[in-house]
Fold this sequence. Notes:
The complex is a heterodimer.
Chain A: E1 2-11, E2 14-24, E3 28-33, H1 40-48, E4 55-60, E5 63-64, H2 65-68, H3 70-73, E6 76-79, H4 91-101, H5 108-117, H6 133-141, H7 143-146, E7 152-155, H8 164-179, E8 183-187, E9 198-203
Helix pairs in contact in A: 4-5
Chain B: H1 2-18, H2 20-41, H3 45-68, H4 73-78, H5 80-85, H6 91-118, H7 128-152, H8 159-186, H9 192-221
Helix pairs in contact in B: 1-6, 2-3, 2-6, 3-6, 3-7, 3-8, 6-7, 6-9, 7-8, 7-9, 8-9
Amino acid sequence: MLEAIGLGCVRGERTLFSGLDFALAAGELLRVAGANGSGKTSLLRIVCGLLAPSAGEVRWNGASARALREEYWRRLLYIGHANAIKDDLTAAENLAVACTLSGVRAEPARIGEALRRMGLAPYGSRPCKLLSQGQRRRVALARLHLATATPLWVLDEPFAALDATAVAEVEALIAGHVARGGIAIYTTHQEAHIGAAVAHTINLDEGARAC
Amino acid sequence: MLEALLCVIGRDLRLAMRRRSDVATALLFFVIVVTLFPLALGPEPNLLRAIAPGVIWVAALLASMLSAARLFAADYADGTLEQMALSATPLGAIVAAKVAAHWLVSGLPLVAIAPVLALQFDLDQSLLGALVLSLLLGTPVLSFIGAIGAALTLGVRGSGVLTALLVLPLYVPVLVIGAGALDVAAAGQSSEPHFLLLAALLVLAGAFTPWAIAAALRISLE
């Protein structure tokens, strides 16, 4: 379903990676590994279509993702480094806006349920500026509960700032998504234990490697 | 799609309501700039009457530019702009919704308070209608053009001054036509052609600038 063909990325004068190929079918998981500055985030942004690759292209069901545009983005859930959370809005309002933007239907009851499952039930009606860094991350990741029908998940450091319980919850969410036939791509620095039938790893430190 | 656009407008209005000081700053800036002129030039009624349209229009233009310069900065900093760029709704439409919300928060109050400020200049009562109408048609165009500047200078250091340099020349046609409408009305002629021109500018800006802004935002995000 998702294919990357000969992806290359040059930032400034530095070549981060080149000739990177991978193909992910339904129910497959991909972990992107590498040191800081090795191009993990750039790779994810290229997969999303936020960044144009210096070579190669990303294809979704055989068609170029950059040509599909909204058709592709409708099937994509991207959670980046930044949480995309407004300090002045409550967790529930933030979640509702994020879901509407990505074209996911989310009734207030389902939003409340997603926040409860992320352990944010007592904070749902408070402005997010009162939340800690980890709690904000949880608000951003609560979208995973609502976007179960979105086939492609691209998660940049989803476990950053999370405590052990939240990490386990997010791991279970990703495993559940892959088990349902979704595709997930993620980066992480810590050991993650995500059960998946087919799990690939790309290590950007060792140069571009096909998988 | 309509749902997403209403959601963006609602979100921006709600954010503005929870952070009223930002809205008040632009409005107070407008009030103060307009008020400086009668104070500096002295109470000569004929002079004040003659400069009123120009002063009010220039002040509206500066106030609009000041508030538009920050239009995308917060969304860029917290990552919301990335989510908008990856939305199922075209970015151009989302941008149009954001500009509409920006105008409701920063343009519409200027239009509403302008007749009161015109009293300082002893502007003829019969001209107040023309003043309000010209601002009503002109300030949304200013918001659209200001948004282009804001999008182009996103993430650039010292972007405030740069936005001003980029945007102010583009404001000139709106200023000339808008202030001209009042001069013509003051001379006792019909200012309808000026209003039609402003309306045409508004239609053009509304139809085309969102796509230019969206393209500029995508470049800034790379």
